[in-house]
Design brief:
Layout (H helix, E strand, L loop, with lengths): L2 H19 L5 H15 L3 H23 L5 H4 L3 H17 L5 H17 L2 H39 L1
Helix pairs in contact: 1-2, 1-7, 2-3, 2-7, 3-7, 5-6, 6-7
Length: 160
């Protein structure tokens, strides 16, 4: 697979990550489709292993999400700007504290947004709890699964 094709796969993965944060877009399936495209175009044992692992991670995340409360983020006061803060925090956390940093990064992004909007620590903490109970945990689960898949793909491309 050439450099330009790898860049296109990476762009589709990034679009999928953004799609996770936007209600109604199939973000996780875009990420999976990008890995499928890469595996079909570069048929090696490593690419197939990443595809199988990606499929399992997505299926597991879907099973976990079915057990969580449904998304009602609009009623909790979540805005698209909050999604940008939360997503940026998750991605930064994923790379700063590899893999598991996405979870505190997501929460820190929501907290920072609410702290700037509301002005105080107690109000921001309460707002973070409300958002997470209203479906933020579902978004975090899907985003974390997509970040794991992106990390596996990046690792396979760079070191594989």
């Amino acid at each position: 697979m050439g450099v330009w094709e790898l860049l296109l796969v990476g762009v589709v993965i990034l679009l999928g990550l953004a799609g996770v944060l936007v209600p109604g877009l199939p973000g996780s399936w875009l990420v999976w489709a990008a890995v499928l495209w890469w595996a079909l175009d570069d048929p090696q044992a490593l690419s197939w292993a990443v595809l199988v692992g990606s499929t399992l991670v997505l299926l597991l995340s879907q099973a976990v999400r079915w057990g969580l409360p449904p998304r009602r983020l609009r009623t909790s006061g979540a805005t698209p700007r909050m999604a940008v803060y939360a997503g940026t925090g998750a991605v930064l956390g994923f790379f700063v504290l590899p893999v598991f940093g996405a979870i505190p990064g997501f929460l820190a992004g929501i907290y920072l947004y609410e702290r700037l909007r509301l002005g105080g620590h107690p109000q921001a903490v309460t707002a973070v709890r409300t958002v997470m109970r209203s479906g933020g945990s579902s978004v975090l689960t899907e985003l974390f699964a997509c970040l794991l898949i992106m990390g596996a793909w990046l690792g396979a491309v760079i070191w594989g």
